[in-house]
Amino acid sequence: MTSRYFWCAVLIVALTVTLPPSVEAQSGGGKIVSNGTIVGVVVGVVAAVVIVAVVLVHKSSGKRTVTGCVGSVADGMSVTNEKDQRVYALGGGTAVIKPGDRMSLQIKKMKSREAGKPQVWETEKVDKDFGVCRP
Question: Model pTM?
């Protein structure tokens, strides 16, 4: 992931160096905005869009830590996050996860092979087992 940021930074620096704004004397009856200003604005906007896209892709593919009560459902297990009340269907290595316990889990999105299937999250690690959930 670090190499992506490195190449984005190289691209931004290269565009900044190769497309400097032109310096012209202002006259009373000429253009209001110079070509250099327009190019500078376009380069800035493109750089901002690239940076935002890289950050969003990085965030959406990253691991998450959820804390909540683990429950048993028809297809396996799920955990309800205490912070945002989202329900995550768990898959992968769920052997150490106990339904009815409050746990802190590191999860990662699993690639879905079927289009209509709900999103399943792979359990990467059990951070902490807090014991039995309180009603």
Answer: 0.50
